[in-house]
Design brief:
Length: 144
């Protein structure tokens, strides 16, 4: 469904990799308490560095590397764009990538919250709280 499990807002000068590693460090117990044999797949875009993340996760806790699978969404290649254009000549521009679409759709749903219209918060914790509230609202709408 694309529901966020964890939220982490970082300063603008912090890398995406650092933000993800912070989430994993803060929620290490969650991943370690998963049933034996269960893995969590974290779907990321191309701004992340898979090999670096896997090494850092191993350094945090050796067992985490068995519980967390990092997956980078594929890039849109010119060949793929040309193939879609040949399939549907009337359709131009946007190319859907299956798993990446989950992340983009979730971000779009969260961005519909009016409270997030501008990043004018003084504290990162306030931004995180607002994102959590928006996510709760989305989940409640789905089950209602």
């Amino acid at each position: 469904m694309g529901n966020p499990y964890f939220v982490c807002c970082t300063k603008a000068n912090s890398s995406d990799d650092d933000g993800l590693l912070e989430i994993i460090r803060e929620n290490k117990r969650y991943f370690l308490d998963l049933p034996v044999g269960h893995t969590t797949t974290i779907l990321l875009d191309n701004g992340y560095h898979k090999e670096h993340l896997e090494q850092e996760i191993e350094l945090i806790e050796a067992m985490l590397s068995q519980r967390i699978k990092i997956e980078i969404a594929e890039k849109i290649t010119p060949e793929r764009r040309a193939a879609q254009a040949a399939e549907k000549p009337a359709k131009k521009g946007f190319v859907v990538i299956k798993k990446r679409w989950i992340v983009e759709r979730t971000n779009a749903w969260i961005n519909q919250c009016r409270v997030l219209w501008k990043n004018c918060e003084g504290l990162l914790a306030t931004s995180e709280a607002k994102i959590r509230i928006c996510t709760i609202r989305l989940i409640l709408r789905r089950i209602a």
